[in-house]
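Schema walk-through. Below, the input block comes first and the output block second. Nothing else is stored per chain. Lengths vary across the set, and this one has 156 residues.
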Amino acid sequence: MAKKTSARTKTGKLADFMCFAIYSANLAYSRVYKPVLEELGLTYPQYITIISLWEEDRQTVKGLSERLFLEPSTMTPMLKRLEVMGYLRRTRDTDDERNVRISLTDAGRRVREKGLGFAEVTAKASGLTAEEFLLLQKAVTGLRDHLVTASRGKSG
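--- output ---
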């Protein structure tokens, strides 16, 4: 007599969890990115902070933390380290002194420029064509946006 397999057993394997697929892909991505970040002398959160400021300078700490999905309490010490490294400056907003504005320095812009060439490393390591890479990036971004909305208790 054949054993019956419950639906729960069939779908309960680790490989069936989307969250694990995303989590483990992130870890693998980080391993590929590690030599790039080491060459730049940055952590990943520091690197994406520089990229975000390069795209839009003079962001507030709050706005930057929301954009990068990092807590303000995480941002402040990291921003202080980047300032000591000479990559950014923090100044009080002239319109509202409660806000701190973050700006890239020339050195911060140069490190961003140096990092531009490394995009090929991760794209090549992905094994995807340029078109597949962009489609996957769009799908993951859409997934993230839906999850953010759901976590805030809003319907999408």
